[in-house]
Write a structure and sequence with these properties.
Layout (H helix, E strand, L loop, with lengths): L29 E6 L14 H8 L6 E2 L3 E2 L5 E3 L4 H18 L13 H25 L3 E6 L6 H11 L2 E6 L19 H8 L3 E9 L4 H9 L4 E5 H9 L4 H10 L4 E7 L21 H12 L4 E8 L10 H20 L7
Parallel strand pairs: 1-4, 1-5, 5-10, 6-7, 6-9, 7-8, 9-10
Antiparallel strand pairs: 2-3
Helix pairs in contact: 1-10, 2-3, 3-4, 8-9, 9-10
């Protein structure tokens, strides 16, 4: 697509498209699916508003990148934010609140159990995400997903397995997300990686980075996976740094655990909370923003193919505070850039 009269150095307008870009989905090599869903969030809320907040903040991102040059040239397009999914999310949130309150249908009545309804709604979302993701993957696009809570990419993982075969997941997070269920919620944000490992055979490896909040059961589950799952705990990453290991060497160790094809799954709370103060479940510690970018850089330069990516749990702040969205928009741009580069659409500098 010809970029004129588009001026990549001029002021952007999010109403023209994410980052102010003029591309349609058909013109773009990278297509991003917005999933405004947060039914199972267990602490703070607001992440269903993340896609819109990131879209609006994206106009502040300068488009030229020191490492990747003109990231925008292959085309990046955010699909319309689904109003239907937003309705499902609101419905699911009410059901989840009922589940946490211990509400059960009265005996003798035909009212459905809220937990049964919630799990069915989560499965419905998974099917929608899978179908939408697979459609664009089969069209030759690099697919990204923008949530929403961290339960949202399950369907995209399924689609990636069908489209590309075996792959690994590079998972940035404060939390392990390997609970079998949370309060009985099968499709909880706290269960996304458990579901990926137990329900998607094409997931060959899970490599987790920045983990610092998890249950004993989760630790046991990850250990039970043997070589299929590896965790780079935040405490151990810091200890290696204190002993003098360079971050470059640490990133090489992280990336070396991954297979030739990789999906990058990024929960924003994997970062130090200074970068995401309004995310739903912030935890002290975590990665610095540029540390996370260096992991992505190492992956992108490793010869591995990034088959897709997701960014989740970005929640806008109160009273118009867009810091979280600003950080999210910039992180999303870098994720898209390294995914495009690993697929041959950009030449890293």
């Amino acid at each position: 697509m010809a970029l004129t009269p588009f001026d990549p150095s001029g002021a952007g307008d999010w109403r023209d498209g994410i980052y102010g870009l003029p591309f349609t989905a058909e013109d773009s090599r990278c297509v991003i699916l917005a999933v405004p869903w947060e039914a199972t969030t267990s602490y703070g809320g607001g992440t269903s508003s993340g896609p819109q907040a990131i879209l609006e903040a994206s106009e502040q991102v300068d488009l030229y990148d020191l490492e990747l040059g003109r990231v925008y040239e292959p085309g990046i397009h955010l699909l319309p934010i689904s109003k239907e999914v937003a309705k499902w999310s609101a419905q699911g949130r009410k059901l989840a609140d009922a589940v946490r309150a211990g509400k059960k249908p009265p005996k003798g009545k035909k009212t459905k159990d809220p937990l049964v309804e919630l799990n069915a709604l989560g499965a419905k979302l998974n099917s929608w995400v899978r179908a939408e993701s697979l459609k664009w993957m089969k069209a030759g696009k690099v697919v990204g997903l923008l949530g929403g809570d961290h339960s949202t990419p399950f369907g995209a993982f399924e689609a990636a397995g069908e489209a590309y075969g075996d792959f690994g997941i590079l998972h940035f997070d404060a939390h392990s997300d390997t609970r079998a269920a949370y309060c009985g919620m099968q499709w909880s944000h706290a269960s996304i990686m458990h579901n990926a490992l137990t329900k998607i055979s094409k997931v060959r490896k899970l490599t987790q980075v920045g983990i610092r909040d998890f249950s004993e059961d989760e630790a046991g589950f990850v250990k039970s996976q043997g070589q299929r799952a590896q965790v780079f705990f935040d405490l151990e990453l810091k200890a290696a740094a204190y002993k003098g290991e360079s971050w470059e060497r640490t990133c090489e160790r992280i990336v070396s655990t991954l297979p030739p094809q990789v999906w990058v799954s990024f929960d924003i709370d994997g970062l130090d909370p200074q970068w995401c103060p309004h995310t739903g479940t912030p935890v002290p510690g975590g990665l610095d923003y540029n540390q996370a970018l260096y992991v992505l850089r190492t992956l992108g330069r490793s010869g591995r193919k990034i088959v897709g990516f997701d960014l989740n749990e970005v929640a806008p702040g109160p009273k118009g505070d867009e810091w979280d969205a600003n950080v999210g928009a910039r992180l999303l741009y870098k994720m898209a850039g390294w995914a495009l580069a690993s697929n041959g659409a950009l030449a890293p500098r």
